[in-house]
Amino acid sequence: MNKNLETREDIELLVNSFYDKVQEDELIGYIFTDVAQVNWDHHLPKMYDFWETILFGRKGFKGNPMEVHFKLNKVHALEQKHFDRWKSIFFEIVDEHFSGEMALLAKQKASSIADLMLLKITRPF
Ligand code: HEM
Predict the structure, then answer these.
(1) Lowest CB count within 10 Å: 15, 28, 32, 119, which one?
(2) Cα–Cα distances in Å, from 44 out to 53, 99, 122?
(3) How far away, in angstroms, is 42 Cα from ligand 1 center?
(4) pTM of the entire structure?
């Protein structure tokens, strides 16, 4: 039985492991490393804040994820297959480290945000 997802440290572990795996992925890794040339020192803390806000309701995240991905899509088309892979890596990493209600919630939230993002990107009206 894995541990519950309950602290900032847990989120840091989740986010770090997730993006380690994302960067190595042959289908979506290059979008982060080559296309967007993500500055990880900047992006990772932002993602800790994002997930703390989503899961624990703590104020802290400032950003506009829909806008960021909308712009990214103009540089490199983001398609269903990319979001499917994003979700499957996220699910895998959550399940590798955590169990319990928060782990389930993290997967549900990730999934619904990903689906909404793809919908907005493909039908921007
Ligand atoms: C294939 C799918 C995706 C790709 C390729 C992608 C890629 C990116 C990239 C390149 C950035 C900008 C990083 C930077 O330079 O600072 C970013 C930011 C971000 N992404 Fe994604 N992303 C994807 C899906 C998602 C999903 C499903 C979520 C949420 C569940 C998400 C949440 C975020 C957030 C919160 C930010 C920060 C936004 C901000 O700065 O306001 N991404 N993403």
Answers:
(1) 119
(2) 14, 22, 26
(3) 12
(4) 0.97
